[in-house]
Amino acid sequence: MFILLLMLCSVHTDKQVNQLEKFNLKNRALKVQEKKLLQQLQRKKELGKVEYEDFFQEYNEPRVEKNLDELQINSLKVQRVLSSHKEKLQRVTLESTELSSDISRRRQLLAKLEEEIQQAEEVWC
User: Fold this and answer.
1) Distance (Å, rounded) from C-alpha 58 to C-alpha 52?
2) CA nearest 17: which of 26, 28, 30, 4?
3) Which pLDDT belongs to residue 2?
4) What pLDDT is attached to residue 8?
5) Which one has a higher pLDDT value, 41 or 119?
6) What's residue 82's pLDDT?
7) Rounded to an integer, what distance in angstroms lies between the CA atom of residue 18 and that of residue 8?
8) Can you tell me the mean pLDDT for 22-46?
9) Torsion angle of alpha carbons 9, 13, 19, 20, nearest 10°?
10) CB 3.0–4.6 Å: which of 11, 42, 45, 114 could bond 16 by disulfide?
């Protein structure tokens, strides 16, 4: 405003004063328009951010479901493998128990045979 007054003081004709007033009004209108455009830009940025977040959320949800499905499939595979290993372990444990019993019986039989051989040798000698 101060600049406008200085300019008015230095201006000699009414025509120049009118032109300066028009420029001043035009300048104010442009500043108001600039402010509106900046507000629109800010709103668009915020909306764009919201739209991006919505898109990301929509994109992310199927991924989570896909990952969950993959985890369930992998879990089933692991359960099957563990079950087969458990069955194999039970078979091998049973076989080991049977073999241990067989070894014990054979050792007892061997001890009995050695004792009989020793008794027979004592009788013949």
Assistant:
1) 10
2) 4
3) 52
4) 53
5) 119
6) 95
7) 10
8) 87
9) 0
10) 11
Q: Which two tokens stand for residue 12?
A: 């000699």
With 0-12 / 13-18 / 19 or more C-beta atoms within 10 angstroms meaning exposed / middle / buried, residue 99 is exposed
Rg (CA), the chain: 50
Q: Tell how far CA 124 is from the center of its chain.
A: 86
DSSP assignment of 73-91: HHHHHHHHHHHHHHHHHHH
> Which tokens go with 104?
């014990």
Nearest CA to 6 out of 26, 19, 20 is that of 20
Tokens 């900046």 identify what position?
38
Angle formed at CA 20 by CA 16 and CA 10, multiple of 5 degrees: 60
